[in-house]
């Protein structure tokens, strides 16, 4: 959120961003100048790699930013600050080639755990229909790199800068869910908030607990999870803690259903011990939510609790001896502006 109207979080963003900017004649009428001002404003707000203080470089809290100018062929642009983009004589931009170059730019950089994002600002596209159809049976996906980029956790944001009301055919499909925009806003904080949202993600291999926001964007606000083989309750707690996580707790029906699916329908420990009919959660959260089966809890069975699937979409809680081995889920905070993941 903004602090006194300012994006105070911006210097702490840690993203790998490549801007792909249409520099064809369709970006005339001040649109290219507006795009340049937007990118430059974002760059000045971030802590960018080569300009980052030593402490930021050591703890990874900096962003790497690149720019590709898209006309009839892509060209890498430098320097970033100040940014000088000029219109070309090209009638339209070949975004397919530019996106391919952007992905190559990101993949050729030294690997790190940061979220990767390609931000396209364009009013046209001349990509050849079916250029790569023999390889991926997709029309515009630059040798399928776009879909692979998304599957690997990358985000593609598209700012439609056309002067007309006609959407460039594949732009909505090209963008990741919730990252297609036509507003072309002047408020730099608008874009920084979007980047902050993109900076919330789970490390690769973990299962995100996400619910779409009003724009249909997904971020794992409710945590990142990984499952483990059966073990007694105390062992489960220790293993999760050793990984910087905690044994998963349940405080609402949404998380109950999510964990049932994430566990593959297998019984799993709930993070907490019985106190009457309540489970005292290990995260110290107080919640009235319970999901006991009929006749439960039964303290004579034990002070620990596990969840077991009882129907196609339902599950229930049962008391159990803490020394019995059960599958369990560990819960981690997502990577974010406030939580750097190395």
TrEMBL record:
<protein>
    <submittedName>
        <fullName>C-type lectin</fullName>
    </submittedName>
</protein>
<dbReference type="Pfam" id="PF00059">
    <property type="entry name" value="Lectin_C"/>
</dbReference>
<dbReference type="InterPro" id="IPR001304">
    <property type="entry name" value="C-type_lectin-like"/>
</dbReference>
<dbReference type="InterPro" id="IPR018378">
    <property type="entry name" value="C-type_lectin_CS"/>
</dbReference>
<dbReference type="InterPro" id="IPR016186">
    <property type="entry name" value="C-type_lectin-like/link_sf"/>
</dbReference>
<dbReference type="Pfam" id="PF13519">
    <property type="entry name" value="VWA_2"/>
</dbReference>
<dbReference type="InterPro" id="IPR016187">
    <property type="entry name" value="CTDL_fold"/>
</dbReference>
<dbReference type="InterPro" id="IPR036465">
    <property type="entry name" value="vWFA_dom_sf"/>
</dbReference>
<dbReference type="InterPro" id="IPR002035">
    <property type="entry name" value="VWF_A"/>
</dbReference>
């Amino acid at each position: 959120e903004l602090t006194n109207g300012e994006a105070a979080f911006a210097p702490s963003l840690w993203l790998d961003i490549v801007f792909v900017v249409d520099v064809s004649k369709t970006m005339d009428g001040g649109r290219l100048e507006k795009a340049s001002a937007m990118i430059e404003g974002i760059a000045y707000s971030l802590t960018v790699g080569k300009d980052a203080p030593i402490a930021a470089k050591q703890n990874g809290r900096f962003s790497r930013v690149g720019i590709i100018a898209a006309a009839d062929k892509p060209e890498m642009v430098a320097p970033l600050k100040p940014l000088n983009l000029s219109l070309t004589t090209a009638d339209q931009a070949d975004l397919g080639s530019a996106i391919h170059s952007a992905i190559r730019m990101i993949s050729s950089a030294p690997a790190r755990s940061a979220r990767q994002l390609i931000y396209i600002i364009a009013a046209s596209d001349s990509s050849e229909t079916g250029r790569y159809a023999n390889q991926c049976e997709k029309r515009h996906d630059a040798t399928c790199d776009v879909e692979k980029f998304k599957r690997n956790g990358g985000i593609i944001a598209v700012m439609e800068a056309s002067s007309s009301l006609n959407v460039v055919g594949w732009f909505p499909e090209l963008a990741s869910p919730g990252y297609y925009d036509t507003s072309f806003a002047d408020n730099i904080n608008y874009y920084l908030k979007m980047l902050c949202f993109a900076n919330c993600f789970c490390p690769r291999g973990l299962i995100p607990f996400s619910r779409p926001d009003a724009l249909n964007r997904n971020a794992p606000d409710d945590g990142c999870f990984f499952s483990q083989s059966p073990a007694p309750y105390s062992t489960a707690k220790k293993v999760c803690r050793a990984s910087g996580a905690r044994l998963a707790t349940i405080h609402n029906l949404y998380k109950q259903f999510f964990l049932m699916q994430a566990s593959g329908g297998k019984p799993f420990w709930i993070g907490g011990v019985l106190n009457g009919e309540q489970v005292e959660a290990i995260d110290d959260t107080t919640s009235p939510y319970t999901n006991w089966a009929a006749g439960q809890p039964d303290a004579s069975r034990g002070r620990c609790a596990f969840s077991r699937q009882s129907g196609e979409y339902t599950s229930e809680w049962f008391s159990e001896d803490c020394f019995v081995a059960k599958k369990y889920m560990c819960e981690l905070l997502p990577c974010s502006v406030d939580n750097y993941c190395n």
